[in-house]
Write a structure and sequence with these properties.
This protein has about 130 residues and is of the alpha/beta class. It has 6 helices and 6 strands. It is globular.
Length: about 130
């Protein structure tokens, strides 16, 4: 497992992050998630992460009987967002994700700007690759 311990978030993160704005409708965000086949959308304002909407959030929203077309992200997004720096170790973020019960971590640079996202799928992929070595 030594190769796994040396891995950093920057080594496994997805650089293309699907983002939306806090004023976007829930139906628009759901459509983006479906179109890109992803489990979360990062909500940004002025190039800063202000929230996240995940599949879990949509389950909660639907359970409450909320109409997706009318409500806005700002009313339902998870905030504050658990984030991670790109130089964090994969071992550390695995522990963080387990402790915080999250499956998606926006990745920030030193200036707190969004540079990527890492999710449980990324961790599964890299774990499978390391085990195969």
């Amino acid at each position: 497992m030594a190769p796994f311990r040396r891995l950093r978030v920057a080594d496994i993160m997805t650089e293309h992050v699907v983002t939306c704005r806090a004023n976007d409708s829930l139906s628009r965000i759901a459509a983006e998630m479906e179109r890109h086949k992803i489990g979360s959308v990062v909500i940004v304002e002025n190039r800063r992460v202000v929230g996240i909407l995940t599949e879990r959030d949509f389950v909660r929203i639907i359970k409450q009987g909320i109409l997706l077309g009318r409500d806005r992200a700002r009313h339902h997004m998870t905030t504050p967002v658990v984030t991670v720096r790109s130089d964090a170790s994969v071992t550390d973020i695995t522990k963080l994700m387990r402790k915080k019960h999250v499956r998606h971590l926006p990745v920030l640079d030193r200036n707190r700007r969004l540079v990527g996202i890492v999710g449980s799928r990324d961790l599964m992929k890299v774990t499978t690759e390391v085990i195969s070595i």
